[in-house]
Structure formats: C-alpha cells, structure tokens
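Fold Annotation — chain and its backbone

Fields — amino acid sequence, structure tokens

___
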Amino acid sequence: MLLPVGGLGMNSTMDDMNLIQQAQRHHLVVRELGEEIDLEIGPGDDDPSFANTPLIGGPREPTADKHDDTKQMGMVSQLPSDDQDMSKTQPAKRKKKVVKRWREEWADTYKWAYVDVKEGTPRIFCSICREYGRKHRRNPYGNEGSRNMQMSALEEHNNSLLHKEALRLQMASKDKIIVDKPIYVKALMSKTAGSIVEAALKRDPHEVEFIQSVQEAVHALERVIAKNSHYVNIMERLLEPERMIVFRVPWVDDRGETHVSRGFRVQFNQALGPCRGGIRFHPLMNLSIAKFLGFEQTLKNALSPYKLGGAAGGSDFDPKGKSDNEIMRFCQSFMNEIYRYLGPDKDLPSEEMGVGTREMGYLFGQYRRLAGHFQGSFTGPRIFWSGSSLRTEATGYGLVFFAQLILADMNKELKGLRCAVSGSGKIAMHVLEKLIAYGAVPITVSDSKGYLVDEDGFDYMKITFLRDIKAQQRSLRDYSKTYARSKYYDEAKPWSERCDVAFPCASQNEIDQSDAINLVNSGCRILVEGSNMPCIPEAVDVLRKANVLIAPAMAAGAGGVCSLLLQGI
C-alpha cells in the first residue's frame, strides 16, 4: 500500500528509486539501499561520451534522458510495491569501476589532477605522481559525495609518502621528461666503416648518446678506415669499455628518509695510461651518457701530450635543492662504492656537470679516509690537492683561445664580435671572462628554464652579479630586474639572437636542427663546442651546408686536459 504523495514513506520510496535509476544509468549495482556508492578509477565503461566531453564546464541544458528520468520519477506512485521489492533483492553483481564526470563546483579541488588516456581508456592522473587510482596509498579521488569528502581524500593523498616523495623530486629537478627518440643513422660510403656502426647498434641498440658519438668518430675516420682495413678490428676493441661499474648509492636526507640513487663509472681505455675523466651528478645521467663521455674523453686525452686514458661516471642524483649535509652524505656513500677503483695509477676523477669544489672536497675527503693516504689523484680546483692554479678556468679559456686562432687564420679577431654563449656554469662563466678580455661582446647565457640576453653585452661587474645569482640558486630572470637593457626568455634557447660566434657550453644535444637553422639565419659563422657533442647529427648537416665552421669539443675543449701539465702527474 502506497502512502500519499508528500508523505514520509513516499519520500523514502522516491529516494530509493532515484538511487536505483542512477546506478543503472552508470552501470552500477547497489548492494544495499542507502549504502554509499564508491566510484573508483577503472576501465571507463561508464559513459561512452566521456572522452569527448569537457571535464569542467558551464551549466548545460537538460538532455532528453533527464526529461525521461523526471517523467519516470513522477510515475513512482503508480508502480506496484512488488516491483520495488524485486529491485531491492536483485543479486549483487561485481561492481564496475567508472570515471565520474567532475562537478563544476569541485574545479579547485582537482587542479592537482589531469586526464589522460591509458591503454585506450580515459583516466584521471595526479599531476605530481603521474599515477592513477589505487596506486597511491588510498584512492585520492574519494567517493561521490560531499565536497568535504573529496577534500578529505585529497588531504589524505597529499599527506601520503608517495605523493611527498614525488613532489620533493619534482621540486628538486626542474628538467623536463625527455621522450626516447629513434637513433639517427647516417649513410656511410664505406662498407668497412658501416660495419663498425652496425656492430655497435647491434650490441647497444638503446644507448642513443653512445651510438651518436660512435657515428661521429667513424664518419671523421671513414677515409682512414677505408684505406686501412685493419683499423676495423682496432675500432671494435676501442668501442668496448675496459670496465663498466654500476652500483647503488643509498643516502639519507635531512628528514631521516633513505633514498637510493644509481652510480656509474666507465673506465673506457687505459692503453696510454691511467684513466682520467669527470664525475657528473644529474637526474638524467645513465650508462649511455657515461659511455659516451668516456669515449669522448679517451679521444680528447689522446690528442693531448700526456699519457692518459679516458673515463667518465657520475650518478642520477640531483644536487639542486639539496643541503650541504645531504650532498656530503651522498658523496661519502658514492665514494664508499667506487674508491677501490680509483688511484694515481688507476683512475683520476675530475669535475663535471653538477660537481664543483664542494662535491670534490667531500669525495676526496672520503677517499682519503678509506684509502689511508693523501695523494693528488683528484683533479680538483684546490691547489693544496696538487691541483693546477688554472684548473677551473682552463676549459673555458681554452675555448676562446681556440676561437681566436681560427679567426687569426682568417686574418680576423674577436674584438667587437657578438658572441652567443649557452649555459651558466663554470665553463660558460670563464668563456665570458676571456671574451671580454679579447674585446668581444658576449650577449647571452642560459639555464634549464630559458636564456638571458643583454644587448649591451656583459662586463666583469655583470659576470660577478651572475655568479652571485647562481651561488644563491636563483633564476637568471633576476638579472633583468637590475639591468633594464636585458631580457629573460622562458623555455627558449639563445640561438636565434644575432651573433658572429656561438659557444654552446650547456650539455649534449642542446642544438637541434631548428636551432642550427636559427644560428645560420642569425649570422653565425663559427661554432666552438664547449660541451661534449652539443649538436645532433641533423644540426651538424645544416651547419656544414651553410659553411659554418665547427670547432669540435674534442680539440677545442682540451684545455682542461692540458692544465694537468701543472699537476705533476
């Protein structure tokens, strides 16, 4: 027997029917009336129009389905009670997971999330962790209920250890995620030279940076290899490192939480003498980059008058945003694993990207404690470590000397030329210093966020200010607040600025094909490589076709090796 419309029993019945119809529209089965419906992220078979519908939008017109639902609800009083009882006693099926369309009033709550397609299904991901569903400690998207319930789930998610760690790593590393690209393989005229590249590709198909460096070396030696076929066997032995060491580096942060990074050391070749090469701390560091740096260092050291082999290494640890104590603990843990492979007759580590005076001091201190002797086997900037007084400046100054020699051969000089420099580390700063000494006009520096251009050119006072900005871990954008004639460009590179000489001193593959075209159009005629392999192969082709002179880093950047003359090794 039905109660009159507007009575208490009728309101309860209408709520029950409304819940049933809502569940049927979303392909849900309610186990018990009145039980809270848990909407979780899942296969996405709730609404076929979800992928094509904006998640947050203005008020929409009621659809025909909604009108039909209203009519059906108006006819609830005409339904027999037996049908209602049958609907309550439906067998409980497995609850299907759905993606609920966001409500407009919850827009602020979901600013930390985004929608992406995973295996053909739209899913809601956390912007920090880039995970979805119950891959967090708890479903961060909560239940379909009040705003307070959603905020409670968001607070639970933000307090989870997974989210905190992901947020810390994101704040510490500002680098973008780089998508793997297919390896670019140049055509070789000689079959013998081509066989060397094919063998390297077959052995290490996923090591993009190493394969690229191999191709550059083989292309440069192609004519020699074609005339002397026995060099093929020599190259095959040279391209395989003598020793590759991969190890874990556990360390503890200031909050007492333990982290594990990965360490590398590739002792590429010791045919001429003990290995010598840098240590790089960067979140993108991997075995391919370590091998490529070790191979480049082997050839660079062979061009010097010293009997040294080549090596390289480092870790995917990012020193940015870390305290001195955290960096010290990491460096000590790193040295605990690698010290037995170092020594004046084995391996001579030096600074590289992310490793400076502070890091080398921590590394050497731990090495001295473990090895039990004080020897100048670390090529650091401290003179009392048996280092050169010009060790820090050697590479940057050498680049400018090399450029001056090229121009002198053309009966020209650096004085008055506009120079574009990338990077803002040790090498870039010393390039600026020596360019000013020669009367050139350096106009740009850059960091991971963009580049800074000063139309008046940098001077010694401005360089000191730049060093202060970098020492305080501030953005180069702060420079433009002091000097009105300067401007900082976000997410851009300096190669579109008008220049006569370019000095890429940031990292490998920083100049792509479009950057090379910009350099040609901006009037660049000489490119001096400060970083190892700064140009991708397509960029090199563009520059050579435009008759831009390229000074390879293997020769131009040998100033750091030549500074070892004063170290007595």
In short: The radius of gyration is 32 Å.
